Amino acid sequence: MEHGPEHDTEHGGGHGTEHGTERAGDAHGGRGGHPHHHGPGAGTGWATAAKATLHCLTGCAIGEILGMVIGTALMWGNVATMALAIALAFLFGYSFTLLAVRRAGLGFRNAVKVALAADTISIAVMELVDNGIIALVPGAMDAHLSDGLFWGALLGGFAMAFLVTTPVNKWLIGRGKGHAVVHAHH
Question: Does residue 33 contact residue 184 with C-beta atoms inside 8 Å?
Fold first, then answer.
């Protein structure tokens, strides 16, 4: 359960001990340099990892679907279509984080560094799993936009990518890496 006053501890509010939730170090960055804890271990919990993965997956899915749709509609070959989909997945994945940290006041150059640090591993794992699933489903790469197989393989790949990437993000966040670097700028 979130307790808004706990956020005040890192800004000098001193309310982090409310309800006995503060442990040594939590008020000033806690474990792994993750500055926004909502109680013991919340910074490295499954919910935090799932939220980070979902954020990443949203950008990746937009890029991936757009790339697959463009490549398929233009009747490009499988390699060209997949390359476009992966490139757009990285572009949109990074863009979501870039926009968020820019809104938080970070300069463009530093925002790019944060986006690269936050999302590269997550997007790479997601794309590897997602495209691996699509490549392994018989006929999926040759299916047309109107085929259920096309959409089923794509959505199944996203679901599997989410399941595989969430533990990766949990591990990264627990070590102050991945999406933990974004939270320093909220």
Answer: yes
CA distance 93 to 3: 30
- ∠ at Cα 24 (19, 28), nearest 5°? 95
Dist. CA 112–CA 117, nearest whole Å: 9
**Max mean pLDDT range (30-34, 97-101, 158-162):** 158-162
Highest mean pLDDT among 69-78, 87-96, 166-175: 87-96
Q: Which residue has the tokens 């490295």?
A: 44
Tell me which amino acid residue 120 is: T
What's the predicted TM-score (pTM) here? Answer: 0.72
Taking alpha carbons only, the member of 93, 82, 83 closest to residue 153 is 82
**Chain Cα centroid distance, residue 41:** 20
Scan for tokens 């001990």, then name that residue. Answer: 17
Q: Which residues contact residue 90 at a Cβ distance below 8 angstroms, ignoring those fewer than 6 apart?
A: 60, 63, 123, 127
Dist CA 177 CA 186 (whole Å): 15
